[in-house]
Each structure stands twice: as C-alpha cells, then as structure tokens.
Design goal:
By secondary structure, the protein is mainly α. It has 10 helices and no strands.
C-alpha cells in the first residue's frame, strides 16, 4: 500500500529547501551534510530521507524550484501595453525584485550547479537560457538600430546587463525595493545610452 502524503508535506519540503539553501550557501555544498540539514530543520535525518534520497536530489530540487520560479516571474509578465524602452525597464526591475530574499539560492546556483550530473545541469541551464533570450529580445527591441542582425554584439550587451544585475546582488544584497528600482533604472540608462555609441 502506498504511503499517504502528510498534510504538512509542502510546508516541510519548503523548510528543508530553505534550510538547505542557507547551509549550502554558508558552508559550501561539498561540506554540508544531510545530518546538518536535518539539524537546521529541526527534524530527524530519517525524515529528510522521506523527502529526498540524497544530497544531490535535494540540490537539484532546490535549484529547479528557484530557477523555475525566477523564469516564470520574469518571462511570464504581461508587457503588451508597454513600449520597448518601458518594457526593458520593467524586466530589469523585475529581475532585481525577484532576487530580493533569494541570496542563498542565488549563491548556490552560482557555486554548486556544477556538482550535479550533466543532464540535470542542462535542465537547469535551460531556465537560464530562456531568461537570457527574453532579456536579449527586450534589449534588441529597445535599440533595433544598434543591433540589426549583429547577434554577437547583442549577446555581449545582454550578458553585460546580467553582469550588472548580478553585481548588485553580490554587493547590495540588503537593498530594499526602492534601491532595486533605482538601480534597475540606472542599468536601463547605461544600456540604452551606452549602445548608441556602439
């Protein structure tokens, strides 16, 4: 007979993922153990294994949940009523707002994704590629005369924009909503005014 799912299954899974993200970010994925994760969650090690068969499975679920939420939040916005420049500004702002409160997950993504098997890495990187493609299209539409058919230039600018957004995450993790909106506007101006000379 199949085991029934506990009423608090989703809440406990969220607790495990949150505690794991913090532990992996602070201790490093390689050094963190399932025993430490169980202790951080206040549950038994046996209970952890009820949810995840091992640390790799937990890491994959953590990153899959985080990147899928980030992709959906950014790429599924309704931007149909905005002109191309306003659309780009809105996307930049949403990325920075989505990073808020996700410092541990973001650090784990940067540092531990390579610990997973290649097929799982490819699955996770597909989310990243979707966001890059979405951002790239917004940048191209905001300055079509600059990019034309020059895919190399567009990719370089797109990755530079992500570099600026990630810089803000790295050095201004405690920034509030208004700070994030202000920096998104700065990135938009640097991008749109900067590409005019390219």
């Amino acid at each position: 007979m199949a085991r029934t799912i506990a009423k608090d299954h989703d809440q406990k899974r969220a607790l495990i993922l949150s505690a794991s993200a913090r532990l992996f970010a602070e201790e490093g994925y390689d050094r963190a153990s399932m025993t430490q994760i169980a202790r951080a969650c206040g549950i038994s090690k046996a209970n952890i294994y009820h949810y995840y068969e091992g640390k790799d499975a937990l890491l994959f679920d953590l990153l899959d949940s985080y990147l899928r939420r980030l992709r959906d939040r950014v790429c599924q916005m309704d931007l149909s009523d905005l002109d191309p420049v306003a659309r780009l500004r809105r996307i930049l702002t949403e990325v920075l707002l989505a990073y808020e409160g996700a410092d541990h997950e973001h650090k784990v993504q940067l540092n531990a994704i390579s610990a997973l098997p290649d097929p799982q890495q490819e699955h996770l990187r597909a989310y990243q590629r979707e966001m890059v493609k979405f951002m790239s299209a917004a940048i191209r539409d905001a300055a079509p005369e600059t990019f034309g058919a020059d895919k190399g230039k567009l990719r370089a600018v797109t990755m530079s924009v992500f570099g600026m957004l990630n810089w803000h995450y790295m050095w201004n993790a405690g920034a509030d909503t208004e700070d994030r909106k202000g920096y998104a506007d700065l990135v938009a101006r640097l991008t749109l005014e900067g590409v005019q000379g390219l």
